[in-house]
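My main concern about presentation is that the manuscript never shows what a single data entry looks like. For the editor and my fellow referees, an illustration may be useful. For illustration, here is how one protein appears when written out as sequence plus structure tokens:

***
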Amino acid sequence: MQHPTPPQDFWSRQANAQSHSLAFAPLGTPAAITANDPAVLAAARLSAGRYSRAPNVGGRPIRVSIVVGAQATAPVPPDLPDRLVYAGLGHWLTVSAGEWGHGFANRQTRQAFVFLSPALAAEPLLVSRYFVDHYLLNLLMTEWAMLHASCVVDAAGRLILMVASHNTGKSTTALRLMRAGHTFLADGMALLKADGPGLLVGGYPIGEVKLRDDVLALFPEYTGDAVQVREHRKTVVNLRAAHPAQVAESVFTPAAVRLLLVEQGAATAAEPLTDRAQMLAAIAPNTVFWDEPVALEHNTAILNRLLDAARAYRFTLGPDPAQIISAMEALE
């Protein structure tokens, strides 16, 4: 029996067919980004470079499907990140960019769907950070715990995690440590996973750092793309170009962990911390919050394993960069 040809593509299924794809493995998790327009995969390629790699690829795969529509919209406003609206219900997560696009994902099926206007699809940096990475991170964090921190690794393989409020100086300190010989893991998130008795550690975003204009002035040799982050204009510096041998590209098991609760002060000083409740209270605002008990317990269990492995310090950043580096290197 010959079926009649539909008179029109009413639901745009033919126009939206996912005929282009990019596969990669953030933190060793298989991920496929598909699209109906090959140009939008430029956003996926940007995202692929921001996650630590792993020698063994496995686990439950993630799929993000991107549809670029045909309907014209106004140009994308420069404050679009501030206009995004996030919502969730059960396993569902949504983000809306108004007339420029929207997306939704299911954490249980590990699938996300993103619908973009042509104007937003032509902005790969925005699509990568606020749609592709938004969903990749949320789906990855069903298995990995997260801690907001600036992270470097010293020559002995010790992981140094610097936790602090915004604009305290942890990014600047991480860069100074890298320039003193440490390896740069991430200036954003440490991603943690139990691995037998130990911990696997990865980062996001790797290979880049976002610097305010006043901080960038301290490193005049760095250049990059300007982005708006909350109330600040920042420059995204490509560290792979500036320091190709000092970027940690892969997940690893650290030889030891130093957890630094960073603050600014008149002089550099390191004070050991042993109060477990105090440490948990300090890192609690810097981790992910799930409202399902099982997910929250999983995240907290991994963070407790981190505290088991770490030596913690209250670390005060004084004005002398050389003293900061010396104090960091002298930590037991």
